[in-house]
Amino acid sequence: MEEILQELRSLCEAGKITWTRHALTRMLQRDITREEVKAAVMRGRIIEEYPQDYPYPSCLLLHVLEKPLHVVCGAGDGQLWIITVYRPDPSQWETDFATRKESLP
User: What is the count of structural domains for the chain?
Assistant: First the structure.
């Protein structure tokens, strides 16, 4: 996991970032800035990995500054891909915002 995080951070630091249309739309709707997303990549931690994602494996990052932020991103073709960004919903996440709540049957 540490290797993945280092690669994501290296690409972010180099400015090799591709923002998907979906991510940009959600950021606008949710009043989340590019700077917040970059901070999440640089200082956040991986809480879930999605190795089977296409076209590149991705992961879910958590960064908590003033408010918790989740960033789904991946690396491929020499780029950091920002897939989506959101504030975790307390009804779906434990208070650490890193653990999903159990679904009721």
Answer: 1
